[in-house]
Amino acid sequence: MIDVALLPGEYAVCRLPAGSSLPPTLWGELGEHDVVTVSWSIDGISLICPSRRASEQAVVETDWRCLRIVGPLDLAVTGTLAALVEPLSRARVNVVAFSTYDTDHVLVPAVRLAEATAALERAGHRVHM
Hints:
The protein contains two helices and eight strands; from the N terminus they run βββββαββαβ. Helix 1 (80-90) crosses helix 2 (113-122). Strands 1, 2, 3, 4, 5, 6, 7 and 8 form an eight-stranded mixed sheet that branches. The chain is of the alpha+beta class and 129 residues long. The protein has one domain: VC0802-like. The longest helix has 11 residues, at 80-90. Strand 6 (96-99) and strand 7 form a beta hairpin.
């Protein structure tokens, strides 16, 4: 069983062209439960952030909700992310997953949140709303 916390507010998945500067909307103090992640690749820059921080210069997909495994988790622990993704996959809920040093996160479409939490609970996990 894994404890999962639903973070408040909606999240955005954003894409900037390769070589772009990070937008100023990402900077500034984070709220207590906010999380922002940035990934660079040859293809571009991917950002996941609270929707209010999304850049107008980015291609933005909004209306995601963020589920965080209650941690911190030891980096040697295996299978926690798979334990979330697998029941969501069975329920046909699409996900965007990412990890931080302390824990794992899964974004699910806001319109599928009830289905996602039900799938996780059927799998034996506790979802804290």
